[in-house]
């Protein structure tokens, strides 16, 4: 495995069991198998055991709490031949729920279901992603992303009729016009733009104080990754980019992106920001970036561990981008 594949949410080689999704009899058999397990979510939060080392909880398929699932479970794949299904318990309403904390940039709240053990909590994946091993992280990211897609795509985009789950959760089927819809993944480029010994960093409005990251943006229809890198950097920071190389990718289920990490060489250094897109941008020399990672920089906080921006910057500092 390439070092570039060891980014969070990638690299666990999950068997996604795609060959059985369209076979209802086999899926039904898998749901009834003694070694099959349920991965449970509430409002996109996976159920974990938070005691370090933290782990993704796998419930027996006959656990009573699963009866409260909103829709049919999603087949995520197999571990050592045993099926794993995602269940959505978002219809449960915890007592004393603080809705404000759920909308926070990094939700610190945890929810405990009364029918589950006290050491099991629903926790924001963005907060706990680095606590999980690669397999748990991939299962959590996959489940969160596809359940989010189902939540926002309950009606046919062609005729407006209510659609139904098909292919073990990997399709929605319209009973009226017969159109089939498949999970959406949005391609996003995130750019390590360098000029000499410096890297370009920026921050979006509303981010926590001191938070800077690599520039990023969605790929537009009819556009290559390389073209998207050059366009986004110029639009946001007014910097012209020449050569562009692909480095690494990361599934980012917030809600359903695939981040393409790219490296680009800046042809210009003057920065002119678009205040609608970002509120600040700067060139950070390698020596200062080492201070950032050490937590001693006076302005910039370290990039969030687990995010591909941290992965790219860390490997740029270590000269092991490959």
Structural class by helix and strand composition: alpha+beta
Number of strands: 17
What value does the average pLDDT take?
A: 94
Oligomer: single chain
Uncertain stretches: none
Given the structure, what is the number of helices? 7
DSSP helix fraction: 10-25%
* Overall number of structural domains: 3
Amino-to-carboxy terminus distance: 11 Å
Written description of the protein model:
This protein has 322 residues and is an alpha+beta fold. It folds into three domains: 3-152, no CATH class; 155-183, no CATH class; 186-317, Nucleoside Triphosphate Pyrophosphohydrolase. It is built from seven helices and 17 strands. The protein has helices at 24-32, 99-102, 125-128, 134-152, 225-237, 286-294, 308-317, and strands spanning 37-42, 45-49, 55-56, 59-60, 74-79, 82-88, 110-111, 121-123, 164-166, 171-173, 180-181, 186-195, 198-203, 215-218, 241-252, 257-266, 280-285. Strands 1, 2, 3, 4, 5, 6, 7 and 8 form an eight-stranded mixed β-sheet that branches. Strands 12, 13, 14, 15, 16 and 17 form a six-stranded mixed β-sheet that branches. A three-stranded antiparallel β-sheet has the order 9-10-11, with no helix packed on it. The termini are close together. The model has no long low-confidence stretch (mean pLDDT 94). It catalyses: a 5'-end NAD(+)-phospho-ribonucleoside in mRNA + H2O = a 5'-end phospho-adenosine-phospho-ribonucleoside in mRNA + beta-nicotinamide D-ribonucleotide + 2 H(+). Its cofactor is Mg(2+); Zn(2+). Pfam families: NUDIX (PF00293), NUDIX-like (PF09296), Zn_ribbon_NUD (PF09297). Keywords: Hydrolase, Magnesium, Metal-binding, NAD. Belongs to the Nudix hydrolase family. NudC subfamily.
């Amino acid at each position: 495995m390439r070092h570039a594949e060891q980014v969070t949410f990638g690299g666990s080689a999950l068997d996604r069991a795609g060959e059985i999704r369209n076979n209802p009899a086999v899926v039904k058999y898998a749901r009834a198998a003694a070694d099959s397990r349920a991965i449970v979510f509430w409002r996109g939060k996976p159920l974990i055991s938070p005691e370090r080392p933290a782990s993704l909880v796998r419930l027996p398929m006959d656990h009573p709490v699963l009866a409260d699932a909103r829709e049919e479970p999603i087949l995520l794949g197999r571990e050592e031949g045993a099926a794993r299904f995602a269940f959505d318990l978002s219809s449960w309403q915890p007592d004393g729920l603080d809705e404000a904390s759920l909308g926070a940039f990094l939700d610190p709240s945890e929810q405990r279901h009364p029918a589950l053990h006290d050491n099991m909590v629903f926790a924001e994946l963005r907060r706990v992603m680095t606590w999980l091993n690669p397999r748990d992280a991939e299962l959590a990211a996959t489940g969160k992303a596809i359940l989010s897609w189902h939540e926002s795509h309950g009606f046919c985009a062609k005729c407006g009729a209510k659609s139904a789950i098909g292919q073990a959760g990997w399709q929605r089927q319209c009973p009226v016009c017969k159109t089939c819809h498949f999970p959406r993944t949005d391609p996003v480029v995130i750019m390590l733009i360098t000029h000499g010994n410096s890297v370009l960093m920026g921050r979006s409005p509303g981010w926590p104080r001191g938070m800077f990251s690599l520039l990023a943006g969605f790929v537009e229809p009819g556009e290559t990754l390389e073209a998207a890198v050059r366009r986004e950097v110029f639009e946001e920071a007014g910097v012209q980019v020449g050569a562009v190389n692909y480095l690494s990718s990361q599934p980012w289920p917030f809600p359903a992106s695939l981040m393409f990490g790219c490296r680009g060489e800046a042809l210009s250094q003057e920065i002119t920001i678009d205040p609608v897109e970002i509120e600040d941008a700067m060139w950070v020399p390698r020596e200062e970036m080492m201070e950032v990672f050490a937590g001693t920089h006076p302005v910039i906080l370290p990039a969030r561990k687990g995010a591909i921006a941290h992965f790219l910057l860390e490997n740029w500092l270590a000269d092991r981008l490959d």
